[in-house]
Design goal:
This protein is of the alpha/beta class. Among the domains are: 5-30 and 33-73; 96-358, 3-Layer(aba) Sandwich (Aspartate Aminotransferase, domain 2). Helices cover 41% and strands 12% of the residues. The chain is built from 14 helices and eleven strands. It has helices at 5-24, 37-44, 58-69, 91-103, 114-130, 145-163, 168-171, 189-197, 218-226, 253-258, 314-321, 351-385, 411-428, 455-472, and strands spanning 138-142, 180-184, 206-208, 232-237, 262-266, 291-295, 307-311, 390-392, 400-405, 434-438, 441-447. The strands form two sheets. It has a seven-stranded mixed β-sheet, with helices on both faces. Strand 2, helix 8 and strand 3 (206-208) form a beta-alpha-beta unit. Helix 12 packs across helix 14 (455-472). The protein is globular and about 65 Å long. Keywords: Aminotransferase, Transferase. It comes from Imbroritus primus. This is Aspartate aminotransferase family protein.
């Protein structure tokens, strides 16, 4: 359907007003969706709406989308959303992302989108500087940590097999030398997904024992390395998803490199600890790794989707990702071709929102935010631990805490009380939290990472948690 210029203007204004209304109401609404998936389907009825035979006007279409979607939207950009490690989509990043969509650039290469490629180049340089990673590393702008892990581990596969005399890009994996992958017992599920996509089944991985907080044990890794022959990849972690623990690379990386191993860091949120002077010591020697995966849509607060695959060996990175055709322009040494660092040819220009958030926060702003969130996590942990029957099960070294309710009861009762307390907290709507199994016990997870979250928000949330617990404990 043809749209007049006035219709386009009205449509964009309509979208902006709906977005502004949603954001303005976040603090006053329950910090959970008004309807779950099943309720949304039931409300749509007619087997989730029939296929449209004729179209609606542009504004009617947008109205229809808003009406269908809004009841099921989480308050994830809100200051009391603690359920997962989800950044809060800062308005500066959102505005840059709107422009990205409106500009409609295909970030495939530097000819189809010169500005997108150039802005990525600047953002990549700033990113490496703020994270204290090698300035010569290459950066791919991907959808998130899952694909960042995929890209980095593809580069690792290319590199270690090439060292063993095998060209995986030309000859594939059939009859290739076996690559040993060593990975911590508490690695994130996204790493396993990336490894599966690259041809490593879960049963072929070598699991490395971890300590009480989920950090890789150096002695266990050294024992595994001593038993390895041929190409080796070691997958480490910055920020365990439940505890925030960091693998001790200072005791790992030299030994791994002496064995000829590639060391990868899954740092979806924890790698940002390097941007803050008070938390940077948690990442001692992390700059010596060979690759790093992290997200922009977590601590950098970009909108979804945005992640970064960072590789210390650009040639291996490009070799693993580049594909060529006669109609696709190739970059020279002075140019950045975005498609050389990611699996996609056609994709949105994620560098615009990244550049905007790095420019808006600056080095100091990111450091202050990380430090503030870690302080708030310690504050919440202290308040919860002071309450009888509640135990905080991790050392709060970053922004994550895990909590058990009924810690003075037997394990079965404690699990039931924890589940019931989480359900009561979520139903109350003051804040949103989630649950998980940790070392065979059910816990409440609290992840503090929204840019707008302040002490008053955390205290209000903890008050609601304590109130819910006291009711479940029979003291409410």
């Amino acid at each position: 359907m043809t749209l007049a210029k006035s219709d386009v203007s009205a449509l964009f204004t309509q979208a902006a007003l709906a977005a502004e209304r949603f954001r303005a109401g976040l603090d006053d609404r329950p910090q959970r969706p008004g309807m779950d998936y099943a309720a949304l389907r039931a409300a749509a009825a007619a087997d989730v709406l029939p296929t449209p035979e004729s179209g609606l006007s542009a504004q009617e279409t947008l109205d229809s989308l808003i009406q269908l979607a809004e009841p099921g939207l989480h308050a994830s950009p809100a200051p009391r959303f603690f359920g997962w490690v989800i950044g809060a989509s800062h308005p500066v990043g959102v505005a840059a992302d709107w422009l990205t969509s409106a500009w409609g650039q295909n970030c495939g290469n530097h000819h189809t989108a010169p500005s997108a490629a150039f802005i990525e180049e600047i953002a990549a340089r700033w990113l490496l500087d703020i994270l204290h990673l090698p300035a010569t590393a290459s950066v791919g702008f991907v959808s998130g940590a899952t694909m960042a892990n995929f890209v980095c581990l593809a580069a690792a596969r290319t590199h270690v097999l090439r060292q063993a005399g095998w060209d995986v890009e030309a000859d594939g994996l059939f009859a290739a030398p076996e690559v040993q992958v060593l990975i911590g017992d508490e690695a994130h599920t996204s790493v396993y997904a990336a490894l599966r996509m690259l041809g490593w089944g879960q049963r072929r991985l070598r699991r490395v024992a971890t300590d009480d907080h989920g950090a890789m044990r150096p002695d266990a890794l050294l024992a595994q390395l001593a038993d390895c022959t041929g190409p080796v990849i070691v997958v480490t972690q910055a920020g365990q998803i439940n505890t925030g623990a960091f693998d001790p690379l200072a005791q790992i990386v030299d030994a791994a490199h002496r064995h000829g191993a590639w060391v990868h860091v899954d740092g979806a949120f924890g790698l940002w600890a390097r941007a803050c002077p008070s938390t940077c010591p948690l990442t001692l020697a992390y700059e010596q790794a060979d690759s790093w995966a992290t997200d922009g849509h977590k601590w950098l607060q970009t909108p979804y989707d945005c992640g970064y695959a960072i590789v210390a060996h650009p040639e291996a990175h490009r070799r693993a990702m580049t594909f060529a055709a006669s109609y696709l322009p190739q970059a020279d040494d002075a140019e950045r071709n975005p498609a050389e660092y990611v699996p996609e040819l056609s994709r949105r220009a994620r560098g615009f929102a990244t550049w905007a958030m790095l420019r808006h926060f600056g080095r100091d702003g990111i450091a202050t935010m990380v430090e503030q969130h870690c302080m708030l996590a310690r504050h919440a942990a202290q308040r919860l631990a002071d309450e009888p029957g509640i135990a905080v099960l991790n050392d709060v070294v970053l922004n994550q805490l895990i909590v058990q309710f009924g810690a003075d009861r037997d394990p079965q009762q404690a699990d039931a009380l924890t589940r019931a307390t989480i359900a009561r907290i979520v139903a109350d709507g003051t804040c949103f939290v989630g649950g998980a199994e940790w070392r065979g016990r059910w816990v409440m997870r609290m992840s503090i990472i929204g840019w707008e979250t302040q002490l008053a928000d955390v205290d209000r949330a903890v008050d609601a948690m304590l109130s819910a617990w006291r009711v479940e404990a029979g003291r409410g």
